[in-house]
C-alpha cells in the first residue's frame, strides 16, 4: 500500500494561469479581463 495522492497546495498552479485575485477585494477574475469585475481595480502587474 504505497499509493498516495499528491493533492497538496491550496490553489493548483493551473488555476493561477486562468484567474488572478484582486488585491483589493480578493475576488478572482478571469485573465481575460484587466480590471476587477467587482471593484474595478487594475490587475496586478506580472512578476
Ligand atoms: Zn477587486
Give a written overview of the molecule.
The protein is α+β, with helices and mostly antiparallel strands and 47 residues long. It has a domain at 12-42. Helices cover 13% and strands 13% of the residues. A two-stranded antiparallel sheet has the order 1-2. A hairpin with a 6-residue loop joins β1 and β2. The chain is elongated and about 50 Å long. The chain starts with 12 loop residues before the first helix and ends in a 17-residue tail after the last strand. The relative contact order is 0.18. The structure holds zinc ion.
Which tags fit this structure?
RanBP2-type domain-containing protein; 2 strands; 13% strand; two-stranded antiparallel ribbon; 47 residues; alpha+beta; zinc-finger; Znf_RanBP2_sf; elongated; binds zinc ion; 13% helix
Strand content: 5-15%
Count of runs of 4 or more consecutive helical residues: 1
Largest sheet properties: 2 strands, antiparallel
Residue windows where pLDDT falls under 50 for at least 5 positions? none
Overall geometry comes to elongated
What's the β-strand tally?
2
Radius of gyration: 15 Å
Short description:
With 47 residues, the protein is of the alpha+beta class. The protein has a domain at 12-42. The chain is 13% helix and 13% strand.
Amino acid at each position: 500500500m504505497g499509493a498516495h495522492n499528491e493533492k497538496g497546495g491550496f490553489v493548483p498552479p493551473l488555476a493561477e494561469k486562468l484567474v488572478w485575485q484582486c488585491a483589493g477585494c480578493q475576488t478572482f477574475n478571469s485573465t481575460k479581463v484587466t480590471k476587477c469585475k467587482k471593484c474595478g481595480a487594475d490587475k496586478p502587474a506580472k512578476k
